[in-house]
Amino acid sequence: MRLVAALFLCLGLLVASAGAVAQQNASWNGTWIGNWANGNGTQIVFADNALIAMYWDGDYLSDTQSSVSADGRVVTITWSAGDELLTRDGVTSGHIVIHEKGQPDVAFDVKRDNQ
Prior knowledge:
Layout: H1 2-26, E1 30-34, E2 42-47, E3 50-56, E4 59-60, E5 65-68, E6 74-79, E7 82-88, E8 93-100, E9 106-112
Antiparallel strand pairs: 1-2, 1-9, 2-3, 3-4, 5-6, 6-7, 7-8, 8-9
């Protein structure tokens, strides 16, 4: 009986630990960058999952709004001239697809800066 109780306790701790790691990985907190080598870089800044600032097309966008998917893996960012889909590939890596009115779509990898 004690062995069964100890087994359930260990199993419970493992599940709780995995949940805590998943929650940490779901946060976009930090600065995400990409595409600088191609001449039109981006910088996207989050505080936890709240979008703070986005640099694109040579300037910081002033009218951005964002929403994070339920699993925390995808962020949709919109502004008056377009939108983007930012998808996490790992803890510090992801990719982005940017759609702007009258422009071809742009897609590239991003990474969390200073990680």
